[in-house]
Amino acid sequence: MKRVRGLASFLAVAFILSGCSGSADVVMTDPVETEPSQPEQVRPQDDFYRYVNGDTLADAEFVYGETTAADALDDTEVLEAVDDMITEVAEGSGYAVGTEEYIIQNLFNLYVDYDFQNAGVPEELDQLFHEIDDAQTVEEFLLLDAAISSEYDVPNTLNLAVGLNYQGQYDAILSFNLITDVFHSDLSALGESYDPLDSIRDDGSLYLQAIGHEEDEADEIATALAYDALDLYNATDPALFENSDNENFNLYTADQVDEILTNVDLDAYITAMGIDTEYADEFGVYAPSQLQALNDMLTEENLPALKAWTIGRLMAEYGSFVNFGYESLHQFASVSYKPPEEDACIAIRKNFGVLVDPLYVENFYSERNDEALRDMCEDIREQYRILITQADWLTEGTRDGLLDKLDNMLVVTGMDVQRLDTSLTSDFDYTNYFTLFRSLRTLNRSQINSQLTGPVDRRSIEMRMYEVNACYIPSLNTITITVASAIDPVFDVDGDYYANLGSLGATIGHEMGHAFDSNCILYDSNGVYNPSWIAPEDIEVLEERNEQAVRYFEDNFVIFGIYHVDGEMTLGENYADLGGLESIVGIPETNEQRQIMFEAYARSWCAKIVDEVLIGQIANDVHSPYWIRVNAMLSTLEEFYETYDVQEGDGMYIAPENRISRWY
Predict the structure, then answer these.
(1) What predicted TM-score, i.e. pTM, was given to this entire model?
(2) Between the N and C ends of the chain, which has fewer C-beta atoms within 10 Å?
(3) pLDDT tens figures, 113-157
(4) Going by C-beta distance under 8 Å and a sequence separation of 6 or more, which residues neighbour residue 163?
């Protein structure tokens, strides 16, 4: 649901719009970047994306190793600013113990001084690996496995963790999440190949050899683990791997879970995780059949494979500390040729963004920015109110529910970022990088687990503030707009309102639109997943409109003249795009204002990308390619036709009876 950096090939695309087509010369051989011919001048009525972005992308050149060029969402400058800020903090002085500045300064300096290649494996980790390996019973192993998950902030064997209760109001719950991989080998790929099993066997063997197992013995144990992975795959509905989203969330009582996990003392396991069993009366379960298969694996006979799995997970999570220290893991180690100071910045923002966020907000965001952002959010909310009120194809009860949901929606911004409670960090050991790293990971898991004690904070931060991104959380009914998305060049507080509306405003509208897309509309105004809140007759109408939208994208938009957009897979994101645009087009009052807005919208999706990545997106990404997010959406908006006088025969023209709308 995020506005992720979607993938689109600007110049290497053949497109078809309602029978009128434009073409590009595409070579599907060795050159990964195609070089099509194009007319010297493109009219907005024929290809608006190319009309706005053509000159920029024609001049764009790929940097060696990169798959995109001239990407409007390129975050290089943002990350450089973050790294400069981290470096400045590291060079400062006088910080109070336990503050973000103090922790970052120590992380930075300890990282620079840490000799990853020669320091050896931290004794604490080495002892822990052997302690796991020495477990004599499944019961002993499971208690250790549970404790490690909280103390080292790694997944556990049961994949049990605190998450949102999608059938409760702003409620956290312990959930048995879907197991999708073993040692980062994707289980869903087993539908086409047994290659993941080979990877699991090979990696598992190396992990065991690292702590002293002979190769033959390690191979045998790791092979057993690979067969376990196959059993998990066979016990799982393949559709869950494609869509393990919230509609697959099942609420189980403790007694129901006990009937499945007959080989687990669940209360003891939860206690070992550091969680009070008073919060263990209900559980979320995503794949009951997979959980049953997992229980069947928890036997004394299979204990060596279970231990190998936990050892491997822990080694993978703490790889930078062990890969150089264990000979068998050298192939996993990577030598950086960057200055250690640069690597330190990357490690801090990658692993501990929660420390960086408050400083980024304080350095780059202002109350003036926030006020302008929130004012625009309210402008767009009001437009949604008009659209919903006028949607007379819905029953009055459903319209009222959607209006309640709109009114109850919270906007989370950089101003909601909170500083750390220094009482939690002031007693950390600041003399060793590994020890500090591990302490921060433990604190992270502790804070996640603490959500069980009360209502989930709806203003919690769901993404890093230095990401150029935004998201909607249906179970909280909140949208998060990051600071990097709410400052120049995406949002210029001193710039033209309608240019801002076309860039950030469309993003705001997109995220608000997710509340009413084909998936999230099933959550009520309090964030509870409850499809029955919508009247049956409205469900029927919505499904008919969904089918029409699927056909619109699949029938009219083709990549390379071969690859059709998957209308089902992209439906939710396409609806969010369309709803977002429909929510902002009513704000401008003149053609000139609309032109500024439309062109800013097209520029916000500017990107040139190599063919192979685009083909992968068509197959796997829930977002449509960039140029479709522009042309397909605008081609169904009446305001666009009026602004640019689009007529039948123009490339952007879609016959009125074939156009779609989220609200009209």
Answers:
(1) 0.90
(2) C
(3) 999 999 999 999 999 999 999 999 999 999 999 999 999 999 999
(4) 172, 173, 174, 175, 177, 284
Whole-angstrom distance, CA of residue 499 vs CA of residue 504: 9
CA distance 256 to 260: 7
What pLDDT was estimated at residue 79?
97
DSSP for residue 471: E
- Contact criterion met (CB below 8 Å) for 412 and 480: yes
252 — phi, psi (to 5°)?
-120, 145
Report how far apart, in Å, the C-alpha atoms of 541 and of each of 246, 574, 662 are. Answer: 23, 18, 12
**To which H or E segment does residue 481 belong?**
strand 478-481
Tokens of 545: 């409109």
Pair 17, 652: CB distance under 8 Å: yes
Whether the predicted pLDDT of 23 surpasses 70: no
- In the chain, what is the straight-line distance between the N-terminal and C-terminal CA atoms, in Å? 23
- Record the tokens describing residue 637, joined without a space: 């908006």
Give the containing element (helix H, strand E) for 175: strand 171-176
Does 4 have pLDDT greater than 70?
Answer: no
Tell me where in the chain the CATH 1.10.1380.10 domain(s) lie: 123-332
Alpha helices in 504-624 (DSSP H): 506-514, 536-556, 571-584, 591-603, 611-620
Structural contact between residues 457 and 172, judged by C-beta atoms closer than 8 angstroms: no
Let me know: does 560 contact 625? Beta carbons within 8 Å: no
Taking the CB of residue 216, how many other CB atoms lie within 10 A of it? 9
Peptide bond into 588 cis (omega under 30): no
The one-letter code for the residue type at 286 is: Y
Tokens of 34: 């195609």
Residue whose tokens read 């016990």: 235
Give domain 123-332's CATH number out of 1.10.1380.10, 1.10.10.60, 1.20.1050.10, 1.20.1250.20.
Answer: 1.10.1380.10
Q: Output the furthest CA–CA distance in the chain (Å, rounded).
A: 77
Given a contact cutoff of 8 angstroms between Cβ atoms, the answer to whether 437 and 154 are in contact is no
List the Cα angle 306/307/309 in 5-degree steps: 65
Confidence class for position 244, pLDDT limits 50, 70, 90: low
